[in-house]
Design brief:
The structure is a homodimer. Chain A is α+β, with helices and mostly antiparallel strands. Chain A is built from ten helices and 13 strands. Chains A, B: Keywords: ATP-binding, Kinase, Magnesium, Metal-binding, Nucleotide-binding, Thiamine biosynthesis, Transferase. Chains A, B: It catalyses: thiamine phosphate + ATP = thiamine diphosphate + ADP.
Chain lengths: ~325, ~325
């Protein structure tokens, strides 16, 4: 049974669900004209920078092709929102470039619903897109307004390294999500939430905007992403693994390798940021869900101590090729 | 032989070639921070709208996978620039989401060069991207500044329909580009240019900004795209095919079906726009490469006359699914 043609498909699943703007004026988030013309027309907020980021999720590389379309859509948007959060930007607009092997309403309906509900939750507006025929992949570009950006390249030796919440949950969850291991229903649900519903760290970024010297989100694993902060500032790092906030899920699913998972596992989208030592007390007083795990140093490379001894991790993070 | 890892790949082929911005201030097109952080940081021009559009080109759906990577990159950017032109927006920034089966320097080098040279030609700045492993596809999002947008939905019955330059060249060229037919070296070159190097119609759009009631670029074929103008304004159209500017290439390669090709063939990226009859003389006086081909009417649907008789085209344009 052939699916609907492209234009009907776009109209049915996206335009109607995400309609914004009007002929006469502007709608929420400064959207003058949304989906359906050659371009969207947008009015950027006065006096702020725009922050923009794009990410592609390829089926069976970045998510299981057979996964729940609602959760896949939600995760795709959350992963992109995490880049806005890590830059300390407020969500405004996003576009969706969706490549599909065929136009299947049973897949598109929950996908569009997951996207719409996640967009609503974070106050971001779909302003355009493209649907093409081909192997399943999802490219989302997010744009936000940014008054005080948190860049990667502002750190100095001696700055304290913090991470938000816990690490390792999504990587520990992956074999469960992929159906490679069987766990209790409760663990199954925890695993799916850890993998599919990462929480962009807008609140933490906003709270530390006056103190942080550098920040990013941990998508490829702490060691790999902290390496980017080090590279951008030409520094190294000293980590105390006894302080590492390892996710309960990593302990329960991968007890033997929990620390390794927390260090090198991707997909958590927690914030990693650095703070000059003089701001330590002020940041502590914010009572955020953050943990100091070490400090930056002049010597290039990242060195780990565990139980008072040097420790060498096996991997360094997700490699895309 | 494994190619370079993702981060080296990005650095080598894109970051170095497209480096913009600086730690201390802003660079061209308001780029404060380009490739390499969680987000790009951009300063939009004051007092203008932003126009943005995204398009995905999938290998062997939208371009031949074995084509020249330089030309593929150039075409991918031109196709997106055409959406800015059709909206009457000036190019500012673009992002590239590139999915590749493997990291191959022999492909990436000419691809990056084609992208850089085309970006330079049109004054648009690469500000971010993502490279992922998977089936070859290219998603580009362009953003421009727009003072007087040309939308699809402003037309009225009686408005004259114009197209820029000629139609049908790219569709006629496709079998040549795909290697399905053999032609003279000169025709081969003309065909490759028609297909791979469409010219975004910035100059025409700018010239008619004070007169046009609606406009779009012809990507899926005149009938299909004019249908979008009609739908947006709840109108129909009457076309005189004797006036249709059929491309020489369509005549020389597909003489028997040249008019059909000009009506329904995609990929030309010429401008189709409408002008209220009272502006006819003013638009004529601009001496642009444009042709009036009919007018809008109250009756829904598009009707064609050829040699004084009604004529029914076989197809209506490219269907994506």
């Amino acid at each position: 049974m052939p699916g609907p043609g492209e234009f009907e498909l776009i109209r049915e699943y996206f335009t109607s669900r995400f309609q914004t703007g009007s002929r006469s004026g502007t709608a929420d988030n400064g959207v003058e004209l949304g989906i359906g013309d050659d371009c969207a027309l947008l009015l950027p907020p006065a006096g702020k920078r725009l922050a923009t980021s794009v990410d592609t999720l390829v089926a069976d590389v970045h998510f299981p092709a057979g996964g729940d379309p609602y959760r896949i859509a939600s995760r795709a948007l959350r992963v992109n929102l995490s880049d806005l959060a890590a830059m300390n930007a407020e969500p405004l607009w996003f576009t969706l470039a969706l490549t599909l092997p065929h136009s299947d309403p049973a897949w598109l309906e929950p996908f569009a619903r997951g996207l719409a509900e996640t967009a609503h939750e974070f106050g971001i507006t779909l302003v355009g897109g493209d649907t093409t025929k081909g192997p399943l992949s999802i490219t989302i570009q997010v744009t936000g307004a940014c008054a005080r950006p948190l860049r990667r390249d502002g750190a100095s030796a001696g700055d304290i390294i913090y991470v938000s919440n816990q690490l390792g949950a999504a990587a520990a969850a992956l074999p469960v999500v992929l159906g490679e291991v069987t766990v209790s229903p409760r663990q199954q649900q925890q695993a799916e939430t850890a993998y599919y519903a990462p929480e962009p760290q807008f609140a933490v970024a906003r709270a530390v905007e006056g103190y942080a010297s550098a920040a990013l989100d941990i998508s490829d694993g702490l060691l790999a992403d902290l390496g980017h902060i080090c590279d951008a500032s030409q520094l190294g790092a000293e980590l105390n693994l006894d302080q590492l906030p390892v996710a309960v899920l990593a302990h329960s699913l991968q007890a033997d390798a929990a620390v390794e998972t927390a260090l090198t596992g991707g997909d958590d989208y927690q914030l990693c940021f650095t703070v000059p030592a003089r701001h330590r007390d002020a940041v502590q007083a914010l009572q955020l869900p953050i943990t100091p795990i070490g400090h930056l140093s002049e010597e290039p490379g990242i060195r780990c101590q565990w139980h008072g001894k040097p420790w060498q991790p096996r991997g360094t993070g997700y490699q895309h090729f």
